[in-house]
Inverse folding.
């Protein structure tokens, strides 16, 4: 960020052009086998991508992310309505919307794209109401659960070098804006991250825990890392350093002389081909390779 580089009118125009290019190519990120009804619902029949209805899958994620951004502006002492890329007309929280742009693709949009391409959002995730479509309760629940998992995922901050969650990164970036404004930080550096790393490995985790309370705590812990595919079996896509932290967290919960937790390395995520899980009877969704948004 270089203050005074462009007048506000030019910045507004740049943001608008970038948004047009981004959303113009959005459909290319959907799988070729995505059902037509899902494509219609994703694009928003008779509406634009900027529709603010929380019945739209993308807008549900955007609103969830925005609820994390807005308090960060207030906590850091920033005026949420004094922005750089958005106007504050009609009392819009322009600065909160500015900060949201940095996290929209990687935190919010990626969640919906991944669910659609995994077929975890399907035709059954929508209900028809007249000429429009809306999320079903099951579709809404799937999106919220996936969003919470994403925003609590960790990555290495590009400026400070330590591991943070996306939730924490939003506050860090808000404080960096404040630092630029008060002169304590030389410039603003945005967060850039690939959504899949070459060293990410798929791990199957199964446990045998006789105590109900400990078993519940362990399940809750693992649900923040991956997909529950059986009552006591999880599949987690995770980098080695984070797996070590997960094992430490499991040791804190488990009673080592009574409980047993199995970690089975299924291989490097980038090397995995078609999903090799099969079921007899009821099946559950298993994590597939995530969409990458650069």
């Amino acid at each position: 960020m270089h203050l005074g580089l462009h007048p506000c009118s030019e910045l507004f125009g740049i943001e608008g052009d970038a948004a047009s290019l981004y959303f113009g190519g959005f459909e290319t990120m959907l799988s070729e086998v995505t059902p037509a009804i899902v494509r219609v619902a994703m694009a928003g029949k008779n509406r634009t991508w900027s529709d603010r209805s929380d019945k739209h899958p993308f807008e549900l994620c955007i609103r969830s992310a925005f609820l994390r951004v807005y308090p960060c502006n207030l906590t850091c002492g920033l005026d949420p309505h004094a922005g750089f890329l958005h106007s504050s007309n009609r009392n819009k929280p322009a600065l909160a919307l500015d900060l949201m742009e940095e996290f929209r693709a990687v935190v919010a949009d990626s969640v919906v794209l991944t669910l659609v391409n995994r077929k975890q959002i399907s035709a059954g995730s929508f209900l028809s109401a007249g000429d429009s479509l809306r999320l079903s309760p099951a579709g809404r629940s799937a999106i919220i659960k996936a969003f919470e998992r994403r925003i609590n995922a960790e990555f290495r901050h590009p400026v400070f070098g330590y591991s943070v969650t996306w939730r924490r990164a939003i506050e860090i970036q808000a404080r960096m804006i404040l630092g630029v404004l008060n002169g304590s930080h030389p410039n603003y550096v945005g967060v850039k991250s690939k959504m899949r790393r070459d060293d990410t490995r798929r791990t199957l985790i199964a446990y045998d825990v006789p105590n109900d309370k400990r078993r519940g705590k362990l399940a809750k812990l693992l649900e923040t890392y991956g997909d529950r595919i059986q009552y006591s079996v999880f599949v987690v896509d995770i980098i080695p350093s984070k797996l070590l932290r997960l094992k430490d967290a499991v040791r804190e919960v488990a009673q080592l002389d009574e409980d047993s937790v199995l970690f089975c390395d299924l291989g490097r995520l980038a090397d995995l081909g078609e999903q090799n899980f099969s079921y007899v009877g009821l099946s559950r969704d298993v994590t597939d390779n995530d969409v990458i948004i650069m």
User: Anything to note?
Assistant: DSSP finds eight helices and eight strands in the chain. The mean pLDDT is 76.
